[in-house]
Structures are given as structure tokens and as C-alpha cells.
Amino acid sequence: MTLSPAIAKWLPVVLLSLSNIFMTFAWYGHLKFKSAPLLAVIVVSWGIAFFEYCLAVPANRIGNAYWSAAELKTMQEVITLVVFVGFAVTYLKEPLGWNHAIGFALIALGAAFVFRG
Q1: Domain segments of the chain: what residues?
Q2: DSSP symbols for 48-94
Q3: What's the whole-model pTM score?
């Protein structure tokens, strides 16, 4: 499949953002259901993760026409943090402090170096 450079550049960002929403629910959504049996939580999380893979794999395959694997991974990690912050605050109702903000900012700064070049 041949895509225009603009689509190959930005479609992975969209797909990785959507995939991270699924994965965040798969990894952390069960924390609101602590009385649920662990095996049930694992099976449900695995089912949610399937949809994450259906988005992440094409994102990386398409994105590699424009981005390097290291850039795609870095992009995914930054998107993961952005999605997680929204998830933690809105869904889990957990406050994030200044230490979290500084830590995430340092990760973003590190990511900026990956894309310089």
C-alpha cells in the first residue's frame, strides 16, 4: 500500500493515539474494579489489548515509511504519557503532582532530542 507522505507522516500519530486509549484501559481500567477476580481482569484486558494491536501494528507499518523505528517508539511513549495523564485524572480520579509534571516534562525533553536531526 502506497500512501502520500502527508498521510504516512500523520496517520501513525492518530492510530497510535487511538491504540493508546485502548491499551491504557487494558492496563489500568481494572483498577476501578479491584474486587473482580484477577483471571477475569486478565481476560478482559487481553480482549481490549487486541484492539490496541489492531491499531498499533498498522500505525508502525505505515509510519515506518516516514519515521524511523526509534522515532515511532518515542512518539508512542509520549502519546502514552499524554493519554495516561488524562485517564488518571478523569477516569481514576487520581491527582498528579508537580513531581509527575516535572518527570513527564523531562521525558518529553528527551523525546525532543530523538526528533532532532
Answers
A1: 5-114
A2: HHHHHHHHHHHHHHHHTTTS-HHHHHHHHHHHHHHHHHHHHHHTS--
A3: 0.88
